[in-house]
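Quick look at the format.
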Amino acid sequence: MAGAQHIHVAGGICNLSSPLQITRSVNVHGDGRTAFSGGHQITGWGPSPRHPGSGILVADVSHFPIPEIKSLRLGGTALLRGRWPKRVGDGLTSPNFMFAMPWSQSVAAPADARTWHGLGIDPTKLPLSAQNFSDRGVWHSTYAHILGCVEKDVNSQLTRVMNVSGTPEPLCGVLFRNAFTVAQRFYFENVDWGALDPSEFYHDMLNHKLYIYPCLLYTSPRPRDS
């Protein structure tokens, strides 16, 4: 056919059993609310026994096709991975972060390689449920998001917490490029720690459970474990 070809995509959800293939050059139009999103539908939600009366839901994802769930949508809303400290205001103020303590162990490796670093954490800034460093399940799925790895507050690295050891000066073992400094800002991501807020989720990779606090149903935070 002569002239440009057009596809107009309306609102709604259409789950495809195979990839969408467009074999010619076309113009795709939406209505401002339209999105193409690759994903896998998760079913079997129910109240979380770990969080009685909280409104938090859980699903078994032991048969999910990938081992880690980094993003999640509920209807048209993108949920955020649970974090600690919780976000306050615009996210730039000190209450939103922890800070690398003086006992941190961080030396830059040659050739920009990722090597083991010890991120010193102040245990008094953690909720009670996160202060049990011997409980593998508490920290198994945790990431550390360290801000400003090369230029302060410009670059950042998100890295898996490999282990937590030592008291009263605990260290989070992480794989890291370059080096961070004492008092460098960071926060933990993909954590529950008794403090999920509406619109947050947490993937427990040890026990293959996915927890969500559905923002569409609940609008006020539940009491936190502090």
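Next, a different chain entirely:
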Amino acid sequence: MFQSRSEYDRGVNVFSPEGRIFQVEYAIEAIKLGSTAVGVQTKEGVCLAVERRITSPLMIPSSIEKIVEIDDHIGCAMSGLIADSRILIDHARVEAQSHWFTFNEKMTVESVTQSVSNLALSFGEYDRKAMSRPFGVAILMAGVDESGESVLLHMDPSGTYLKYGAKAIGAGSEGAQATLEEQYHKSMTLDDGMKLCLNVLKQVMEEKISATNIEVGICRKDQEKPGKFHLLGKDSIDTLLSSL
């Protein structure tokens, strides 16, 4: 006789008779409580946009970081437990710098994501450095490789990562993904991609969208060298929002 679900979901290393690991599924559900994040890949570069949840007027919005730089040419947006994401981000930064120092070339976006995926899969191991549970965070990794290819990858708590043309994660991800599927096309310019990201956030956010409660990061292709990732300032976001 099989044990009940409540007994199988206590262990991170135990499969249920149906072949499921419930702790990983619960971690994926935790992401649906996080802020909405949207990424769009275009022929000119990649764009990330994330909602900042400002729960108190006393909170300083600039202290909420949902988009971070991994390397000169790679940025990352996250949704879920942000404390968990810091471990993955620090690991990604160390891997990117170690690769550059050893091989004198920039690490590709996919290789960085793979190294983060390997860490995400190490939960439950008998090792002090490993987490005792799955990471409760999903990541959108975006950048432009030395080859000139713009890349957008999504990684979830199971350690699975996939390339996307456009992807939404977080609380409003279902509605946002449906809009992206309708409006996204491969021939988009980066400016069109940024406007699409903001339009999607505008639809799913509960608060009125403004330069204060969103964060936008872009990596634009450069003909001579890999794209440079940077966050947009408040004035640039205001200009984009006024053009919607």
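The helical segments are 5-8, 22-31, 82-103, 109-120, 173-183, 190-204, 234-242.

See the schema section for token definitions.
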